Amino acid sequence: MDDLLSGALSRLDEAAKHVEVDSEVLEKLKYAKETLSVRLSVRMDDGSRRSFPAWRCRYDDTRGPTKGGIRFHPSSNVEEVTTLAFWMTFKCAVMNLPYGGGKGAVKVDPHSLSKSELERLSRAYVQAFAGMIGPDRDIPAPDVYTNSMIMGWMADEYSSIVRQPSPAVITGKPLPLGGSLGRDDATARGGYYLIKHLEEDLRLSGSARRVVIQGYGNAGFHIARLLHADGYRIVGLSDSRGAIVCADGLDPQAVQTAKEQGGSVTAYTGNGARAVTGDELLGTACEMLVPAALEDQIHKGNAGLIKARVVLELANGPVTPDADCILNEAGVIVLPDILANAGGVTVSYFEWVQNRQGYYWGLDEIHQRLRVIMETEGRRVWDMGSARNIPMRTAAYAHALERLSKAIAAHGTQPFFVG
Ligand code: NAD
């Protein structure tokens, strides 16, 4: 079995030690319900035709229609899609959203395509998966290298196929096409609300609140902006091209402007900032590390370098199970992805609700609703982890597993049928 998926399933086994759960439930959660693999055939601008492997996985829909993003990435594969769909199943359960978990991907480097080719590829994806997705069945969203415009094309293509406007088929759409206010920074904002709520428990309320952020895209930039505005000092940042550190603190907007002009955070040279390697970034003295790039970035080879006391996982799966053990032994508190980055799917849920009711909320209402859910579920996970003295990741999985288990067992398990 693929490493990423077996790593994810090992966390399920760990969580099962802390919850009363029927073996049938565990068996069901070990396999995806439905996965479709296709090749998308797309006409290129030069008249040639190219085909791209693409997938959609609906991992488990016991608690509701499946929900999860679509990724366009050159190294996407079916195991990664399945693992991401598994994580979504648990993420929606942690947050008590009425959804199961799904995910999709196309193996492509989107930067190698023209805008017209990207539109044709996005529409081809929906043509291939139109029978699988739907507002009551499976609701995609953006993920790595997909954005709101792509979601708008996809919703439009689906609406053409079903011959009626159907905005609730997809979330993360542009605002004029039924998107929700607050979706752009929802992932980071959810993580920020979680940190604010647990600030005293995490001993982050003092004066030394230094932060290192790995990855400076949507999640990384917005968490830098929110924490900086709140008085945290951003002492290191990176993107796929390099990393910078600055003990006096970086201004997130100034770094973003330099990145837009120079193509990387390393283009920022103000305030004594200097370029470092990725490992040096991880070893920078700080109170909190925020992985906001891709999966498996913190592994057994570099976990020992980390000086932070708290890790806020905005990326999905950034810490491997081996690295998790190293961090636990060092007493580092890891706020796990399925809780820490769940603000994104929560506001996606709000978008779907607004599309279905045809009535749209203001930004304050979105923020308030997001804050309540992050605080409620964050506190439950924290209390379970503290009371049982288990890592927060195990607590988050156990909390989700309790909900999934109740839903699956409500259909009856062996003891019910045989008495
Ligand atoms: P993005 O494409 O906007 O940004 C990704 C960033 O990571 C880019 O700055 C890229 O240069 C950087 N990066 C890539 N490889 C790197 C490396 N080896 N070292 C350092 N930086 C590297 O993507 P995003 O939407 O910000 O997503 C980031 C992570 O957050 C992903 O794991 C994604 O699944 C997760 N996530 C995103 C959302 C969301 O709403 N955007 C929601 C939940 C989870």
Radius of gyration equals 21 Å
* Euclidean distance between termini CA atoms: 36 Å
Q: Largest sheet, order of strands side by side?
A: 9-8-7-6-10-11-12
Describe the main β-sheet briefly: 7 strands, mixed
**Secondary-structure-derived class:** alpha/beta
Per DSSP, the total helix count is 15
Overall geometry comes to globular
- For the secondary structure, the number of strands is 12
- Order of H and E elements: HHEEEHEHEHHEHEEHEHEEHEHHHHH
> Which residues sit in consecutive blocks of at least 5 with pLDDT less than 50?
none
Mean pLDDT across the residues is 96
Residue fraction in strands: 15-25%
Helical coverage, percent range: 40-55%
Small ligands present: nicotinamide-adenine-dinucleotide
Give short descriptive properties of this protein:
alpha/beta; 15 helices; seven-stranded mixed β-sheet; binds nicotinamide-adenine-dinucleotide; 12 strands
Write the layout of secondary structure elements.
Elements: H1 3-16, H2 23-29, E1 34-43, E2 49-60, E3 66-73, H3 78-94, E4 100-107, H4 115-129, E5 138-142, H5 148-162, H6 186-198, E6 210-214, H7 218-229, E7 233-239, E8 242-245, H8 252-262, E9 274-276, H9 278-282, E10 288-291, E11 310-312, H10 321-329, E12 333-335, H11 337-340, H12 343-357, H13 363-388, H14 392-409, H15 414-418
Parallel strand pairs: 3-4, 3-5, 6-7, 6-10, 10-11, 11-12
Antiparallel strand pairs: 1-2, 2-4, 7-8, 8-9
Helix pairs in contact: 1-14, 3-14, 4-5, 6-7, 6-12, 6-13, 12-13, 13-14
The protein binds nicotinamide-adenine-dinucleotide.
Keywords: Oxidoreductase
Organism: Azospirillum himalayense
Domain Glutamate/phenylalanine/leucine/valine/L-tryptophan dehydrogenase C-terminal: 180-412
